[in-house]
Amino acid sequence: MKKCLNYKIREIRVRNNLTIQQMASSLEIAASTLGMYERGMRKPDIAVMARIAKMLNVDIKYFYEEDFEIDEIASNIEYLQDSKLVDEARRRANGFCELCEARAPFILDNGEPYLEVFHIKSRGYNNETNEIVLLCPNCNKKVEIIKNPGDINYLLRKVRKNTKDG
């Protein structure tokens, strides 16, 4: 019998003797959000699924076996951000766009400021490490479409300065 994504999340959480609250806290999401994932009322995005897989020490493919989404996951896996780098970017940005420095445009249900992840290396810019920044939707689109080298260099300097300082 084919198991759905929501069932697999719950099954592996229970197998690891974790409550919804414990797992949600570790993932830095609301317990109600995790509950909705487990009931199939909401679907976690690939970044959240990567954090769940890492936390529970399973391959992310476990959640998508026999699922029609496996092709989508396989094609997008190269863009999957390392959750540690995203967490570092969240701390660095502190709720502000790293390019225009404006406050995030709104707050999500889980209390997090809404900023979009921009993965510089995955966009083909010439750098030797994975650099992740958080941008407001306008700046994210601007950097994605216009590809202004000045913006990219500014963001790279900001990340690298923070890495040296931190």
TrEMBL record:
Which superkingdom does the taxonomy of this entry point to?
A: Bacteria
Pfam families named among the record's database cross-references: HTH_3 (PF01381)
Cellular component (GO) terms are:
cytosol
Q: Which UniProt keywords are listed?
A: DNA-binding
Per its record, what are the GO molecular function terms? DNA binding; DNA-binding transcription factor activity
List the InterPro entries. Answer: Cro/C1-type_HTH, HNH_nuc, Lambda_DNA-bd_dom_sf, TransReg_Diox_bact_type
Q: Would you tell me the protein name for this molecule? A: Uncharacterized protein
What organism is recorded for this protein? Clostridium beijerinckii (Clostridium MP)
